[in-house]
Amino acid sequence: MGFSVTSYYSQLTFLTASGDDIQIPAKGPRFMVLTNLYLRVNSPLVIKDILSAYSCTGCVTEKSNPDAFEVFFLGFPGVFECLKRSLRICQRDLKELVFVIQSQRNSFHVRQAEKLQRDLLLQTQTYQESPVILLLHTLSENEGAWSVLPLLPYLSSNFGKNSSWIVFLEEDTRVKLRKLNEVLQKFDSRKEWFLGKPLHDDESTIIHHYAFSENPRAFEYPDFSAGWALSIPLLNRLADKIEDEPLKSDFTIDLKHEVALYIWEEGKGPRLTGVPELCTLPEQNPRAEACATTVSSHSPQCVEAPLSAFSISLSILQSFRPYFKSMSPQGQPVMIENIFVAVKTCKKFHSDRVPVVKKTWAKQASLLEFYSDFADPSIPTINLGVPNTERGHCGKTFAILRRYLSGHVPKTDWLLIVDDDTLISLPRLQTLLSCYESSEPLYLGERYGYGLGQGGYSYITGGGGMVFSREAVVQLLVSGCKCYSDDAPDDMVLGMCLSGLRIPVTHSPLFHQARPEDYAREFLGHQTPISFHKHWNIDPVAVFIKWLKSDQHTEKLKNKTREEL
């Protein structure tokens, strides 16, 4: 069984020259500075293990054989001076860490972020000092705070003089604090470092504006799920740059790629340095033992776990395995009858796109209507009286929203609006929605941004699917917000309207505006995706079967873990 450093020392017998016991504090690393002490051990590995533990390189294990040594008053203080020094360094380094959890304002996501915050604090209980832990959504009222770069001046101003690292974590990232501290000590924090788990494109992609088209693999960017870090010198320089040259007012599409591009600055700044210990393996995976970070799940966790995986030893955790298995890992999926699905189409796509929808995911729906510029009873489609436009479709989308509340369709708590070339898994959406309160105004999907550096707004990109709670639709239409033209970009207009109502965008990386080929393979490898978009240059039926049909992709991930076990 594993031991913490404190419990390790509670196993030892400390004696004075006269044979009196010396009481070592049982809680916390308040190490008694004893002069003229000596360790007599049966194996040099014991000293190595103690030094290793107090240098923050990992917990002492049963291999150390705690019963194999005693401490006597025999005149050799060097070992304990080393231990004291190592402990002091460990505490200092933890105090110089700043964690930023990339949290969101929605109540479910606040709970997820606070759970991670508690887990980190729990791991610091054996230290006299703790790192700073910040929740991103609390740091600024600025709509663009989630895009990170606008926050760098704030982080530099508050932590740029007394810290060493800023570590960014997603809500589902899990951290082994001791291991992460050890990893960061390998890098000279006085220099500029940009650390993370590297991703790269296999082909040039529209979501990255076809950057590095000659060699897409040449540029690496971090997988946020594994955590990523900036050294303070790099943070301070970037903050100065942002204050001197305000961020451009353009689109934010794939934040992790755009952050890496901004830092690299066409070769003037550092590239991402890959850190093998930053991982996206599930925390239960045996191969994750060497990892400093893992992910809690491939899909959302909608109930509280009774114990923190990193607050107790792995061997103790194993003894609770039957208890964990007896628990449902998620809330009950939302009833399919409680989701109304609206598919936007037009006459020219009735013969090619609509049949794909019917052949793939439409059969999963209970309540679904196709909305077109032409009423075709063979499908059937509904003509909303809005002329088709080559782009934007704002008029059609707002007509759908009005119909949803009109009484012409069954009353449901949830509305999903998709394009006719969207591929989606409704069972996975049902599971995801179980995380959220339908009584709250929810606006959910893949988040993009426009002009975030200069007071812009966020929006859900339409191609991956836009999900609304009924309450969000009610507040939107009551506000009177509307399209400035029928061909205005519907997703962006919705973003502006809901931003004005202070209904935040709720982001899920499981929705995708593009095809699977447009995303890094390793990024999709630790996901259970909900949607993809576009039929261009792919077989959409084959893509649906591979990535979205039923729970085949989920079972593949589970089977992979079982094989490793």
Automatic annotation (TrEMBL):
It is a single-pass membrane protein; Single-pass type II membrane protein. One of its GO terms (molecular function) is glycosyltransferase activity. Residues 161-241, 334-538 form the Fringe-like glycosyltransferase domain. Keywords: Glycosyltransferase, Membrane, Signal-anchor, Transferase, Transmembrane, Transmembrane helix. InterPro entries: Fringe-like_glycosylTrfase (IPR003378), Nucleotide-diphossugar_trans (IPR029044). It is found in: Endomembrane system; Membrane. GO terms for cellular component: endomembrane system; membrane. The keyword Glycosyltransferase applies. The keyword Transferase applies. Gene3D superfamilies: 3.90.550.50. Belongs to the glycosyltransferase 31 family. This is Fringe-like glycosyltransferase domain-containing protein. It comes from Danionella cerebrum.
